[in-house]
Design a protein that fits this description.
Blueprint: E1 2-3, H1 7-23, E2 29-34, H2 82-86, H3 96-112, E3 118-123, E4 127-131, E5 138-142, E6 149-151, E7 154-156, H4 167-179, E8 182-184, E9 202-206, H5 210-219, E10 226-228, E11 231-233, E12 240-244, H6 272-279, H7 287-310, H8 319-328, H9 332-342, H10 352-356, H11 367-385, H12 392-407, H13 415-425, H14 430-442, E13 445-449, E14 453-457, E15 460-464, E16 473-475, E17 477-480, H15 494-502, E18 520-522, E19 528-534, H16 555-575
Domain FAD-dependent urate hydroxylase HpyO/Asp monooxygenase CreE-like FAD/NAD(P)-binding: 2-160
Protein name: FAD/NAD(P)-binding protein
Pfam families: NAD_binding_9
């Protein structure tokens, strides 16, 4: 049984179809697929949503199919990218409904590729809980069904889920009810009721990532506004969005040019051997102390490989000499000195700390001054991310993908890395940031700055930031523009809540612990359950996405393959149907 029919569940079916000829002979295998949403698209990519909501990747950078860069035991089964399937320009940012149609087609193709006698049964309802002995058939209770479904094994592929409010959000919600305010907690923007956000009224928005971009689109064009070139023409139905966050800036624009020439030879300083060493440490490892220095050196290697080999006129040494010195230096200060001596222009140097905190130490005398300053920052980001002469940025992007593929093996490393990755590598399309600039000039969006704090007092919500000291913005509406955290203890999904109550192993951040080899769920003693598996963001082996850019290794594809092979091997042994 597979609980979750979105892209992760579809990817698992595709891998079952690919591996079955080798690992499972004969017929008589039933796959029960449980999800109230459409198979393939699932909830996030369902067709019933606004066409204003885009993907944040070019259509040519989206695939559900494996290639020979995926490190897996199963066979490669290639297929079209989104742009090849849809027959659209590869540089298009498709809307999510089109991606949902692509995912539905992939699901149908995966089901059709299953061996004869392997049948998929879709149950359009929610799974409530799973029970049964570890050495016997599992019982899965579904809503509106009196008797449980029986399954030899269960795979949870649930994707992103809703969560109960944490202590801070509960307090803000209670304050809003008491004072007649509007409070929208972390949620999927497409599912939020935005109607209480009144035209012309100020709205505090905490969060400057992709959830904000969706909010921005739905409250502007979604309310009848339009763009005339670089100018926004309001409809008069828009609220005024006062947006801030920890960094105070939007996620970096998607890179707007193609890769040319040699790719950096990755992994170089953070690969399987380094991960093996971290996992073998008797006392465990600390991310900041033990892992981050390796990541930082790896990303720097990708950056400087590209700079020295493609833009040598901006360096003072040949690559082979610099590479040897770079490999020998481990301390950050020594590496910074080496780079400064060989790369004259600071704009050509990789400074991850500055990237992560672009407004660190920056102060403005008023919010009016901040608006102009932040528009200049966004314009600079757009210019750089669309300039091929800055192609070391794209090399760093490839380095981030490589690093993520290695970090998956380390389990739960805390939330910071995932946010940092999204900020650098999974930002909005360039056109969205140009729309943001137009909205800022029109006064529909107002920037609050970095280190944003929110308080509830005086019958209103109040926001302040470190970027404009001693200034406060008041509003009667607050939107938390971010996804709910994927914690078991607060998950609204009843099945995950039941697992939490049953005592499965969890990380300090509340993620479900799984065996990194094949996704089997672990108990608190670290023992893998022989009949229960889990894949996705609610686990400590979460990958950057259920689909990925072609030829980048696809950690989720690797995980899907390992889980499919483990499941088929188990079923073959159970029924004596191992392939010849």
């Amino acid at each position: 049984m597979i609980v979750g029919a979105g892209p992760r569940g579809t990817g698992l079916i595709e891998r079952i179809a690919a591996n079955a000829p080798e690992l499972y002979a004969g017929s008589g295998l039933d796959i029960h697929l449980v999800d109230p949403h459409p198979p393939g698209a699932g909830r996030i990519w369902r067709p019933a949503q606004s066409p204003l909501l885009w993907m944040n990747s070019h259509a040519e950078d989206v695939t559900m199919f494996t290639d020979d860069t995926v490190d897996m035991a199963g066979p490669v089964r290639e297929g079209p990218t989104l742009h090849e399937w849809a027959g659209i320009d590869g540089r298009t940012f498709a809307d999510r409904r089109l991606q949902g149609a692509y995912l539905s087609w992939v699901h149908e193709r995966a089901v059709a590729a299953l061996p004869p006698g392997v049948v998929v049964h879709h149950h359009p309802r929610r799974a409530l809980r799973v029970g049964g002995p570890s050495k016997g058939r599992q019982q899965v209770w579904l809503e509106d069904r009196a008797r449980p479904l029986l399954a030899d094994l269960v795979v949870l592929a649930l994707g992103h889920l809703d969560a109960e409010l944490d202590d801070e959000q509960r307090a803000l919600a209670a304050y809003a009810r008491e004072h007649g305010l509007v409070h929208l907690p972390p949620d999927f923007t497409a599912d939020s009721d935005l109607s209480p956000l009144a035209p012309g009224e100020p709205v505090l928005v905490r969060g400057f990532g992709l959830a904000f971009v969706d909010l921005m689109a739905l409250l502007t064009e979604g309310r009848g506004g339009r763009y005339a070139g670089d100018t926004y023409v309001p409809s008069g139905q828009e609220p005024v969005l006062y947006v801030g966050s920890r960094r105070g800036v939007p996620y970096h624009s998607k890179i707007g040019y193609d890769w040319t020439g040699e790719r950096p030879p990755l992994p170089r300083f953070f690969g399987p051997a380094e991960v093996d060493g971290l996992l073998a440490r008797p006392g465990g490892f600390d991310f900041r102390r033990d892992v981050w220095p390796l990541v930082e050196k790896e990303l720097g290697f990708a950056h400087y490989h590209r700079l020295f080999t493609v833009h040598p006129e901006r360096t003072t040494e040949v690559w082979s000499v610099f590479e040897e010195k770079y490999a020998a230096v481990d301390d950050p200060a020594g590496r910074a000195a080496l780079v400064a001596s060989a790369v004259p222009d600071p704009a050509d140097r990789l400074d991850l700390a500055a990237l992560d905190h672009p407004l660190e130490g920056v102060r403005y005398g008023s919010y009016e001054e901040l608006q102009e300053g932040l528009r200049g920052y966004v314009e600079g980001d757009l210019s750089r991310r669309h300039d091929p002469s800055r192609s070391p940025d794209l090399a760093v992007f490839l380095g981030l993908l490589s690093v993520y593929g290695q970090l998956v093996r380390l389990g739960d490393i805390g939330p910071w890395w995932h946010g940092f990755f999204s900020y650098l590598a999974s930002g909005p399309p360039g056109p969205r940031l140009r729309q943001l600039l137009a909205l800022s000039r029109a006064g529909v969006v107002r920037f609050l700055g970095a280190g944003m704090t929110v308080s509830a007092e005086g019958g209103v919500f109040r926001a302040s930031s470190a970027t404009v000291p001693d200034s406060v913005v008041e509003a009667r509406a607050l939107v938390e523009a971010r996804l709910p955290g994927p914690t078991l203890a607060r998950a609204r999904d009843p099945l995950l809540r039941e697992l939490h109550a049953d005592g499965v192993a969890e990380t300090p951040d509340g993620l479900l612990r799984v065996d990194p080899a094949d996704g089997r769920i672990l108990d608190r003693a670290g023992r893998p359950h022989p009949r229960r598996f889990a894949l996705g963001p609610h686990t400590d082996a979460r990958a950057p996405g259920a689909f990925t850019r072609p030829r980048t290794g696809g950690p989720a594809f690797r995980q899907n393959d390992a889980t499919a092979r483990a499941a088929l091997t188990f079923l073959s042994a159970l029924y004596g149907r191992a392939a010849a």
